[in-house]
Design the sequence.
């Protein structure tokens, strides 16, 4: 089930849907923040958004859960070619290209945010005073000395320290970069060893004991290769489908755990303190279960490989990076204009539709003219400068 680009269609579909849900999360934080804070005083829907935020359905706008889905997917996708070919060169190529592949679209996003900020085109602060999201929407793009911050962010801040001053989604980029290197390093150090899986378990236990929980999501991703390899051997079709449904159901429950830990009024308030002490694992395990359910089920794979999800997967990185800038500029501007003559919820509904209508084509443009060429450039740099100097590894 390959796409035209050689990527796995269903994995791209998962990534695309997760990126869209992150957009929903941030749009909700901007205009219906009570769903996240559970603060009735900030409600615009007579408390309905609070009830939604306390329900299991909130998984569909849980940004933190979606980010862990990205991490698990990265661990799986970045290691999958190696598991299929056992080619050490795939690890060298992936590791040496990773920085450039991530950096180019990130740098473009930071520069674009800087231009919008310097041009006074962010309207998030005045909009936040109406939407009751001063604590989130109103806090962005308000820092002084933007020029100095631009250079520090481009040179080291985002890629190495997760500086998200110019774009809230950039906080995950350093984790993604370091996690990618962890995947390549582990596979390189265990190349052609018999006990790779045992060593993977040891690495997982080390990261778990030392509270490097973000790293465990990439390790979970690596382990999906074993599930993929064994699904036809160890499980028949019926058991595989049943197990995938169970895993998906549990994943959605775990993914609904409130990121801010506010469990009053939620399903989780009935859990014991001993279980809640491990709540930091809920989204990670949920993300692993979710991706596992698709790995196990051809039915789910076909569903998430529909054209709309493949398109979202194609533009997912650009959509993930761009949408906060669009919300802070275009969406807030249109909202301020519409709120002068329309009821709040009617104005937000129009803004939401227009936001989607703007985000999708702009993300496609960024993918086509920035992300795809950036990936090609990373391959060129590797082929031109790094590959020729690489030292063959004895098998």
Sequence:
């Amino acid at each position: 089930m390959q796409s035209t680009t050689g990527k796995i269609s269903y994995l791209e579909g998962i990534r695309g849907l997760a990126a869209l849900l992150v957009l929903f999360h941030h749009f909700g934080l901007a205009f219906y923040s009570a769903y996240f804070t559970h603060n009735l005083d900030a409600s615009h829907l007579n408390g309905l958004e609070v009830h939604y935020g306390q329900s299991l359905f909130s998984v569909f706008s849980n940004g933190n859960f979606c980010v862990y889905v990205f991490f698990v997917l990265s661990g799986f996708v970045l290691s999958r070619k190696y598991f299929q070919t056992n080619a050490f060169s795939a690890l060298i190529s992936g590791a040496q290209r990773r920085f450039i592949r991530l950096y180019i679209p990130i740098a473009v996003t930071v520069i674009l945010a800087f231009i919008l900020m310097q041009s006074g085109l962010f309207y998030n602060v005045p909009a936040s005073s109406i939407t009751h999201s001063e604590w989130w929407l109103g806090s962005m793009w308000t820092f002084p000395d933007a020029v100095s911050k631009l250079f520090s962010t481009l040179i080291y801040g985002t890629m190495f320290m997760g500086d998200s001053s110019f774009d809230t989604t950039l906080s995950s980029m350093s984790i993604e970069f370091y996690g990618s290197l962890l995947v390549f390093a582990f596979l390189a150090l265990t190349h052609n060893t018999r006990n790779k899986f045992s060593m993977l378990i040891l690495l997982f236990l080390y990261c778990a004991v030392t509270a490097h929980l973000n790293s465990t999501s990439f390790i979970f991703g690596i382990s999906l290769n074993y599930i993929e390899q064994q699904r036809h051997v160890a499980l028949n079709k019926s058991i595989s489908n049943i197990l995938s449904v169970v895993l998906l159901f549990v994943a959605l429950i775990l993914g609904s755990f409130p990121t801010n830990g506010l469990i009053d009024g939620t399903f989780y308030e009935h859990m014991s303190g001993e279980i809640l002490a491990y709540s930091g694992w809920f989204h990670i395990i949920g993300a692993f279960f979710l991706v596992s359910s698709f790995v196990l089920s051809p039915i789910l794979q076909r569903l998430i490989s529909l054209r709309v999800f493949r398109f979202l997967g194609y533009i997912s990185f650009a959509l993930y990076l761009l949408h906060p800038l669009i919300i802070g500029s275009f969406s807030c501007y249109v909202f301020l204009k519409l709120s002068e003559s329309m009821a709040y919820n009617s104005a937000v509904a129009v803004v939401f539709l227009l936001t989607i209508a703007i985000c999708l084509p702009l993300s496609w443009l960024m993918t086509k003219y920035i992300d795809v060429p950036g990936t090609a450039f990373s391959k060129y740099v590797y082929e031109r400068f790094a590959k020729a100097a690489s030292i063959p590894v004895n098998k």
About this structure: The CA atoms of residues 308 and 393 lie 42 Å apart. Confidence is low (pLDDT under 50) at residues 1-6.
